[in-house]
Input
Amino acid sequence: MSDPIRRVEPEVHPQVTVRRYSALTRVNHWTLAVSFVLLALSGLALFHPSLYWLATFFGGGPTLRALHPIIGCVLIVAWLLMFLRFAWANVPEKTDWIWLSRVRDVLSGHEEKLPEVGKYNAGQKLVFWAFSLLVPGLFLTGIAIWDQYFYTWTTIPQKRVAVLAHAILAIFMITVWIVHAYAAIWVQGTIQAMTRGYVTGGWAWRHHRKWLRDLVRGRKRPPPAAPAA
Ligand code: HEM
Output
């Protein structure tokens, strides 16, 4: 595997970049993100008559109704792959409690007052475990009301409960997703982790210093110089 830490030497400043995600992980993540956005839009169209106009983007009501659960299947497969890849990095640690109790310092940009963070901070871990409950919950309640294939699997009273639970879980999911996407945009330099796969050395040092230290410790040679961009 290639070295995760690179030194890029343009004419003015030498810059260190650190690999955060492989191409495969990025494809996995964006499949998840796109399928979720499509599910949210099609789900909202089914949720309330005032939002039914969204069905136009899916080829009308009947097509949307057929597509929504199929996209749900794409989401659950993409999620399971993501879960298997990242569950280890989201296991809670003692220092996560300190991070959470000093979230004010995070918001005011004083991360130096907090314990060093590994691959993910406590906020990201909370989002990860919330997704881990919500995605399977949405999938199971969705199967319970997918009458085209699973009509006989549940009784009418069970379907009623499932419809309600599905809508409530969807509201939570949209809320957690907004927090996740907002945090990714708010912390400058994070989006490029999922688009290009690399972050700057400064980003890694500032936000995930323990992760960077572990990467450096695991590498025996000094960073190789990559051609200037
Ligand atoms: C369009 C919306 C989205 C944007 C802009 C976005 C952005 C990002 C970015 C930039 C990262 C890298 C964060 C880092 O390395 O520190 C990330 C990680 C991740 N994203 Fe998203 N994402 C979106 C949607 C989703 C959805 C819908 C899900 C799940 C259903 C999801 C699940 C994850 C997971 C599991 C990680 C790895 C972080 C962890 O394990 O805690 N993302 N996302």
Summary: The chain has a mean pLDDT of 92. The two ends are 21 Å apart (CA to CA). Residues 20, 29, 32-33, 36, 79, 82, 86, 90, 120, 124, 128, 131, 135, 177, 180-181, 184, 190-191, 193-194 surround protoporphyrin IX containing FE (CB under 6 Å). The beta strands are 5-8, 15-19, 198-200, 225-226.
